[in-house]
């Protein structure tokens, strides 16, 4: 993979994700042709260059992507009213309990976690959707409860805290509404941290100093800013090519675009995927990642939530320090990059929020957002006791 320097961060210059076998569809699905045609005039599209190989790739890429779409979010539990009083242990519960042996609950392992945090400073990284707010059908209604907001507020008063989301930074701030912490939107491609009073680090060298909406001084880092016009172009194209698909929804996340299919009839998922694949063939500098019933289109740069964690630790003057323990709580595939960074560097723990067994680089798990809140409260309680001791 060719790494080119763009400013001071590396940019992946090959269209790697389109070679990914996960970008595949069964050969019996007819390609939707008008979409790509409609946007071939886009300023950032490279349609003519890649046209020759399209038909072949559609077959080669079969299946993987659809499997990823199907497994991208656990089905909600069906309650059978007739058997509601039956003991709730079924096969799924058994599997979950077996999985817990490998990824123990961060609540039941709390003592173990804090014993490794003794004499260390904890840095806290929190994903938003599915971690601080439950997954809901309408992304605009993923509201954080006041109780969760208060738990995050107290935690951020005890520990350096960052919210790391795939959403745009502005949008996630509107949900969280807390000042004094770092916000990282667009999967780490838009990072803003308050300038701290006695900031000896001066922020990260690649940050610019600016002011936020409240006029407060902040450090800002946007490694994908050159992609903004391209992202805006593909956003409009995606809105257009999905407008006749019932339930499909396209969300702009500033440096990324989400195509939601949670409310699309499952039989139509291949069609959603096919249209996105077709369009992306003309944008080799963009790639797709899979979230929870969402396809996330983002720039092909060597940047993700894991890199964002490293960057934030550096910005906060907390990297390469033996006395820092990082804790990252997240529920999504995109959080795996951050779990991996912490696991491989031995700098802390990933905690996966999941009520079903999943392969993960996390060390611990929490079942749902209510357990996340309990965990945050426990951390605060422990910190206050420890400080008072
Ligand atoms: O990194 P995150 O903060 O977890 O953001 C990832 C995506 O989250 C949102 O979508 C997810 O949550 C929605 C609301 O609960 C749900 O309707 C959707 O199905 C989930 O995928 C957000 O809307 C996306 O733009 C983010 O990419």
In short:
It comes from Musa balbisiana (Banana). Its EC number is 3.1.3.12. The chain is of the alpha/beta class and 389 residues long.
Please describe what this structure looks like:
By secondary structure, the chain is an alpha/beta fold. Among the domains are: 91-189 and 303-388, Rossmann fold; 227-299, Trehalose-6-phosphate phosphatase related protein, domain 2 (Alpha-Beta Plaits), CATH 3.30.70.1020. It contains 14 helices and 15 strands. A hairpin with a 2-residue loop joins strand 11 (286-291) and strand 12 (294-299). The radius of gyration is 22 Å and the shape is globular. The site of the ligand O=P(O)(O)OC[C@H]1O[C@H](O[C@H]2O[C@H](CO)[C@@H](O)[C@H](O)[C@H]2O)[C@H](O)[C@@H](O)[C@@H]1O has 24 residues, from strand 10 and strand 12. Residues 127-130, 135-137, 139, 142, 165-167, 251, 253, 258, 260, 262, 291-294, 296, 332, 334 line the site of ligand L263DTV3.
CATH topology of the domain at 91-189 and 303-388: Rossmann fold
Outline type: globular
Level-1 CATH class name of the domain at 91-189 and 303-388:
Alpha Beta
What is the multimeric organization of the chains shown? single chain
Most strands sheet: 9 strands, mixed
Pick out the low-confidence regions: 1-41, 49-57, 78-84
CATH architecture of the domain at 91-189 and 303-388: 3-Layer(aba) Sandwich
Radius of gyration: 22 Å
Strand adjacency order, main sheet: 7-8-6-5-4-3-13-14-15
Q: How much of the residues is beta strand, in percent?
A: 15-25%
Number of strands: 15
Report the mean per-residue pLDDT as an integer: 83
Distinct small molecules: the ligand O=P(O)(O)OC[C@H]1O[C@H](O[C@H]2O[C@H](CO)[C@@H](O)[C@H](O)[C@H]2O)[C@H](O)[C@@H](O)[C@@H]1O
Number of helices: 14
